[in-house]
Amino acid sequence: MVNTTSIGQPGPLIAGGHLVIDLDALAYNYRLLKELAEPAEVAGVVKADAYGLGIEPVARTLWEAGCRRFFVALPAEGVALRHVLPDAEIYVFNGLFGAEAAAVYCAHRLIPVLNSLSDVSMWEAYGWDNDVPRPCVLHVESGINRLGLTADNVRQFAEENALTSALTPLIVMTHLACADAPGHPMSAEQLQRFNQLRALFPEAEASIANSAGVFLGGDYLCDVVRPGIALYGGTPIAGMNSPLRSVVTALSRIAQIKHVPAGQTVGYGATPVHRDSIIAVGSTGYADGYHRAVTSHAAKPGSRQAYAFVNGQRVPVIGRISMDLTLFDVTELGPDAVSIGDMAELFGKNIPVDEVAEVCGTISYELLTSLGQRYYREYVRNER
């Protein structure tokens, strides 16, 4: 087993929280997605510091598992990734960021996703002025109405580029708005629009599927799929029986054990205690990405109770989440079952991250990317 922690991260003895990141599970998920997507190629989405888990160890693990293409959101992320993987193909979702940034793309061999005619013009102009190749990805707007070239933009570009060959589109892509809702008519509509426009670029590969899109299968797979959350163990479609393995376990160190008599209250807002209770105080809170909504949203009618996992048993989270503290009702475990220094699992193999996200009224993407810098991060792999 290999233990590492990033420079500047707190050590295991002094951190309030502990993240265990299972790189074997990450590699397993990549291989599973590759099998599901065949014959399409799997490009790993590692934006936002690999969804909060650390771009360097995550990218290296994916590379070792066979991944050769990676997507990030920002050029700064692409530069960071280039230092980690000198030979990878790196694509940047959010476009050029202005004409002056084009030099950065070339210097670090980043491939821009062109989202507008202004992106197209800037990338063309930089290539002509500097006599450099101009590979790119064309992002076709098919209905989500965020980034992307309109249908008219795409047709105009196809006509002009056929005459000048100024750019080399490697991939034509779009992004699904409702892939996480199987059977939603929007997905079929987007696929139809996309197929009409991708036909204008017969030499380019096509890409439409994100994590949920992989599980839609069939015509959605195209040539390249772009999973993100599925790599990290999140369930891309709510309610599905996910074959993916949990990658990250978030733990909170117990700082104190409180014996609270019935009739007293705990935490901000004075949540009442209706029985003599044993409360374990964890050393993480919303500053560490364990959202205040874990308990505030759960208090709403019809919402689920939030749980942690302590010494082999699920226990309720009680009271409001503080910036640095979370309270766990460990009464059912018995008077001496929990000690200072024990760890409570906030989410992981026993408490799925998607369960916590549902309790919060959010999604696992937000939880993972909210993980703060105060955790001790342990990256584990089996010995080879």
From TrEMBL:
<dbReference type="GO" id="GO:0005829">
    <property type="term" value="C:cytosol"/>
</dbReference>
<dbReference type="GO" id="GO:0008784">
    <property type="term" value="F:alanine racemase activity"/>
</dbReference>
<feature type="binding site">
    <location>
        <position position="323"/>
    </location>
    <ligand>
        <name>substrate</name>
    </ligand>
</feature>
<feature type="active site" description="Proton acceptor; specific for L-alanine">
    <location>
        <position position="268"/>
    </location>
</feature>
<feature type="active site" description="Proton acceptor; specific for D-alanine">
    <location>
        <position position="47"/>
    </location>
</feature>
<feature type="modified residue" description="N6-(pyridoxal phosphate)lysine">
    <location>
        <position position="47"/>
    </location>
</feature>
<dbReference type="GO" id="GO:0030170">
    <property type="term" value="F:pyridoxal phosphate binding"/>
</dbReference>
<dbReference type="InterPro" id="IPR011079">
    <property type="entry name" value="Ala_racemase_C"/>
</dbReference>
<feature type="domain" description="Alanine racemase C-terminal">
    <location>
        <begin position="247"/>
        <end position="380"/>
    </location>
</feature>
<protein>
    <recommendedName>
        <fullName>Alanine racemase</fullName>
        <ecNumber>5.1.1.1</ecNumber>
    </recommendedName>
</protein>
<feature type="binding site">
    <location>
        <position position="146"/>
    </location>
    <ligand>
        <name>substrate</name>
    </ligand>
</feature>
<dbReference type="Pfam" id="PF00842">
    <property type="entry name" value="Ala_racemase_C"/>
</dbReference>
<dbReference type="InterPro" id="IPR001608">
    <property type="entry name" value="Ala_racemase_N"/>
</dbReference>
<comment type="similarity">
    <text>Belongs to the alanine racemase family.</text>
</comment>
<keyword id="KW-0413">Isomerase</keyword>
<comment type="function">
    <text>Catalyzes the interconversion of L-alanine and D-alanine. May also act on other amino acids.</text>
</comment>
<dbReference type="InterPro" id="IPR029066">
    <property type="entry name" value="PLP-binding_barrel"/>
</dbReference>
<dbReference type="GO" id="GO:0030632">
    <property type="term" value="P:D-alanine biosynthetic process"/>
</dbReference>
<dbReference type="InterPro" id="IPR009006">
    <property type="entry name" value="Ala_racemase/Decarboxylase_C"/>
</dbReference>
<dbReference type="Pfam" id="PF01168">
    <property type="entry name" value="Ala_racemase_N"/>
</dbReference>
<comment type="pathway">
    <text>Amino-acid biosynthesis; D-alanine biosynthesis; D-alanine from L-alanine: step 1/1.</text>
</comment>
<dbReference type="InterPro" id="IPR020622">
    <property type="entry name" value="Ala_racemase_pyridoxalP-BS"/>
</dbReference>
<dbReference type="InterPro" id="IPR000821">
    <property type="entry name" value="Ala_racemase"/>
</dbReference>
<keyword id="KW-0663">Pyridoxal phosphate</keyword>
